[in-house]
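Pair request: fold both.
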Amino acid sequence: MVYLCSMQLSNVGFILTDIEGTTSSVSFVYEVLFPYFRNNINKLKAMKDLPEVQEAFDQTVELANSQDGKVLSNTDEIIEMLEQWSKEDRKITPLKTLQGILWKEGYHSGEIRGHVYPDVPEALQQWKSQGIKAGVFSSGSVTAQKLLFGSSEKGDLLPYFEAFFDTNTGGKREEQTYTKISELLKIQPENILFLSDIREELEAAQTAGMQTIQLVRPGTEASWEHTAADFSEIRLK
């Protein structure tokens, strides 16, 4: 592992972080969030007239046809398709949107509390005190991101974040997505530090010009030049 005290981080003005395996455990997603979605998925039938649900259903019909070669003709078939995608952990935008809608109920009822590693809130506070802004880029919807950090086990962490991005911006393994995020933030890519546990995401961000660090949390193997075991190792001048 390359510890960050020896790494040259320069002129970082914005930190962009992934969630799963970076700020939060992957097990939280698979053991808490995904089961909650599947256990409550039929509630979407009563929500189908809501504009955001109807739009996600329409996208599901289109993607099921174009990606899976399936023709969905009713709500039950749409629900079945979404449940299948959930079990396969497909990174599909309408699935992420609908997950966020149901998770909102769980967070607000107190059934769910967002997991964050203990080192994350302290680091966020430190970076903010240094004038370094932070944002999130995750495959989970922006709604889901805000729910996790707003109702986390460590309290409301939303004040530490300036921006949120999901797959509506682009794929996480595509260079142009990080270029677009840089443009949206109005910050040069070389002044952005991207944190993730996934090599392919780090490669895309680095190719776009961003500085990068791989978080090597429990269950993750180091596969990048610059790594950190937790946020406390990321020291910025």
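--- second member of the pair ---
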Amino acid sequence: MAKYPMIRWLKPMNRVLYALAPAMVLAVYFYGWRALVLLAVVNAAGFVCEYAFVRQYGEPVSSSVFVTGVLLTLSLPPTIPYWMAVLGMVVAVVFGKMVFGGFGRNVFNPALVGRAFLYVSFSMHMTARWLEPFAGGWAGFLHYSGGAMTSATPLAQLAQSQNISLIRLFTGFHPGCLGETSAMALILGGCYLLAKKIANYRIVIACLAGMVITQTALWAAGIDGALSPVYALVSGGFMLGVFFMATDPVSACQTNTGRWLYGGLIGLLTALIRTFSVWPEGVMFAILLANTFGPIIDFAVKARKSGRSPS
């Protein structure tokens, strides 16, 4: 067998990791060094799992597996057991990517496949065990883990009409998943991806517009449980989903018109799921549903341009 490198580093994937760095640093600041250990364990599991598949073809592991590992880790609660996170990563790699033929062929965002599996399989650990973030001074940099336990997240509190500081939501000083709490860090990383043209601006703008328009309509109509659009934008995992998961170049639409429709669908579905379902966070399901319809949207767009009937 010919020699080959263990890892194939892909420049776009490296830049996604750079963009996620602020959120990763704040995850440690808010929740302690356990967040970094969890990140290392999940990525090691992902590398081993993908290597087991690609080595028989004499191919290296692509650096995209680390993007999947970081995204999955940042979308998890700080208290999740290590073995659960590893299991989620294995599902992400095997069923989110390898069953479709490996890198570049997956229909769904792999990190979201792993998170959805954990969400439906271990709902207690994924939805009810949260920590109050450390604050002040070196905060979590001086601790392995800790903080007061709480069962409430901002979306749950907002749904119950409890007042939460918008500044705390934006900066991240509130309970939540490791990398979803700070909209500020995610927007900073997202702007970097847009500037480097790694994330498609059409998807981002359409997602934001779809969410704001739908959420504003529901809120203005006085629908029970409908959040203010400003609070809806900066709470939960919306910013992580918009900038880093919806823009996945493989599972997103490939046509420009399709990207506008795809992004708008994610924003629309996020607002509807958050308002009318039992799940306060709707971004994950919205993106997976949009992934499902992405190829159909592209086919319809191409058929329309060529003058053929989509049927």
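Observation on the second member. Strands lie at 7-8, 61-62, 130-131, 149-150.
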